[in-house]
Amino acid sequence: MVSCGMTFVPSTFQPGLPANGSLWKTLSMLLLLLGLVSMLIGSMSHLFEQVDRRTEERRRMERQRRKKNP
Question: Which of 17, 31, 46, 50 could be disulfide-bonded to 21 (CB atoms 3.0-4.6 Å)?
């Protein structure tokens, strides 16, 4: 959240920003992108785990149906 705020607020509103403000803004942009990428990776891995779980449940149910109706 802080890195997002630092990215979109101009340096004139940040009185404590050192002389190399562009370095700080670049760092905050990189932190923001890193956070977004990690969120995307976490969401995608959760979705794939859910698909695997549902596929396995579907296979198990079909095996049980075949055993009941030979």
Answer: 17
H or E stretch including 2?
helix 2-8
Can you tell me the distance from the alpha carbon of 13 to that of 47, in angstroms, rounded to the nearest whole number?
41
pTM over 0.90: no
Sketch the domain layout of the chain as residue ranges.
2-68
Give the Cα-Cα-Cα angle 28, 2, 25 (nearest 5 degrees). Answer: 25
pLDDT in tens, 11-43: 666 666 666 667 777 888 888 899 999 999 999
Looking at per-residue confidence, does 69 or 21 come out higher? Answer: 69
Look-up of token digits 């050192």: 18
Token reading at 7: 């990215």
